[in-house]
Specification:
Structural class: alpha/beta
CATH architecture: Alpha-Beta Complex
Number of strands: 9
CATH superfamily: Spore Coat Polysaccharide Biosynthesis Protein SpsA, Chain A
Oligomer: single chain
Shape: globular
Radius of gyration: 16 Å
Order of helices and strands: EHEHEHEHEEHEHHEEH
Number of helices: 8
Length: 227
């Protein structure tokens, strides 16, 4: 029985996958989930060998791979959440900016909280090597979300949600940040933030651009209006 699903959207992340999968497996080795987890990769038709490498890793790790023709981080996450078999679902990035070693602590907190958010902006959290522009984008994104939630890091891309708390809910994210919509629509209002330090990716290219931020602004407006 699968109890934990780790959902990871990927597009051209071949350099990061080996260490990522090994760190996930190592972090869960001493937990009750060591034999009851799955890694769900949603690949938007990578062109750098990502797909082939994931297929190779499937022989050694509990991996399921879905390859899509369309592209888009938010739609990949919604797709992965629907396909996940676990009662608890962790969403994280493939670029090693999210430390898998935090997952056991997220699982422990989830016993009394429907949503556990790995947060950069609570005591003990932080960011490393961000440019001024990146800091401003993050600040504005969090500022826009304040009317909707008291969560300090509502645009985190690293979180755990219980399947039962989003079953039957229609998620329609218009931007790369799906967490804020889950916060607003989740059946459980019990949430916890767990500090972590965010490091920029070392390999591969970031998918964040001005178009994605504009989509986030549109998403915020839709949530303000309750749509």
């Amino acid at each position: 029985m699968t109890q934990l699903s780790i959902i990871i959207p990927v597009y051209n992340e071949v350099d990061n996958l080996n260490p990522l999968v090994k760190r996930i497996a190592s972090s869960l080795k001493s937990t009750l989930f060591r034999k009851s987890y799955e890694i769900v990769f949603v690949d938007d038709s990578s062109t750098d060998g990502t797909t082939a490498l994931i297929n190779k890793l499937k022989s050694a790790y509990p991996i399921r791979l879905y390859v899509r023709k369309e592209k888009g981080l938010s739609s990949a996450l919604v797709f992965g959440l629907k396909k996940a078999k676990g009662d608890a679902m962790v969403v994280m990035d493939a670029d090693l900016s999210h430390p898998p070693e935090l997952i056991p602590s997220m699982i422990r907190l989830s016993k009394s909280n429907g949503l556990v958010i790995a947060s950069r902006f609570v005591k003990g959290g932080g960011v490393r090597s961000w440019t001024f522009d990146r800091k401003m984008i993050s600040f504005i994104a969090r500022l826009l979300a304040r009317p909707l939630t008291k969560v300090r890091d509502p645009v985190s891309g690293f979180f755990l949600v219980r399947k039962k708390d989003i079953e039957g809910i229609i998620l329609e994210p218009r931007s790369w940040k799906i967490l804020l919509e889950i916060i607003c629509k989740s059946k459980s209002k019990r949430m916890a933030e767990l500090p972590y330090v965010f490091f920029n990716r070392e390999k591969g290219a970031s998918k964040l651009d001005s178009k994605e931020f504009l989509n986030y602004f549109r998403h915020i407006i839709a949530l303000w209006l309750g749509k």
